[in-house]
Amino acid sequence: MLTLTGLLANLPPEPDEASLFGEIQRAVAVSGRKLVVVDDDPTGTQTVHDIELFTTWDVQMLTDALQNDPRLFYVLTNSRSMPESDAVQVNRKTAQQLVTASQATGIDFVVASRSDSTLRGHYPAEISALEDVLATSAHERFDGHLVVP
């Protein structure tokens, strides 16, 4: 019978976190992709600093953001406070604007949807709205959602 100790003994050692950050930074830099965090509530952005945060946006602003140096920026939709149907529309429009800005600049991006750890937002409706637009307009393929508390 396999014990927990026996099972864990077969795993590789845990990686050094500090070295992982460097590897991640290099991989992001080489990819050329921007990370766009679509945040449903203003409290989430209180944990970051020195990051561009858009509380209003349009295609031109997103085009400029894609062309600027930082590899990351936030789009604050404040959609958690909206009815689900409105939140879905905001996410669809945001995704379409990002696709349009990406096509205009030739700069690719990846979206992370940030929401409440207890899923008080409109999960999975908002993520599905982003996914639907990105799958059809940007020809992205999604295998699933990662829920990280």
Explain this structure to me?
- This protein is of the alpha/beta class and 149 residues long.
- The chain has a single domain, classed as Rossmann fold (3-Layer(aba) Sandwich).
- The protein has five helices and four strands, in the order H-H-E-E-H-E-H-E-H.
- It has helices spanning 4-9, 17-31, 59-67, 84-105, 125-137, and strands spanning 34-39, 52-54, 72-76, 109-114.
- It has a four-stranded parallel beta sheet, covered by helices on one side.
- Helix 3 links the parallel strand 2 (52-54) and strand 3 (72-76).
- Helix 3 packs across helix 4 (84-105) and helix 4 (84-105) packs parallel to helix 5 (125-137).
How is the secondary structure organized here?
Blueprint: H1 4-9, H2 17-31, E1 34-39, E2 52-54, H3 59-67, E3 72-76, H4 84-105, E4 109-114, H5 125-137
Parallel strand pairs: 1-3, 1-4, 2-3
Helix pairs in contact: 3-4, 4-5
**Gross geometry:** globular
CATH architecture: 3-Layer(aba) Sandwich
Structural class: alpha/beta
Order of helices and strands: HHEEHEHEH
By DSSP, the count of extended strands is 4
Radius of gyration: 18 Å
- Largest sheet, if any? 4 strands, parallel
Number of individual domains: 1
CATH class reads: Alpha Beta
Which structural traits does this protein have?
149 residues; Rossmann fold; globular
Short description:
By secondary structure, the protein is an alpha/beta fold.
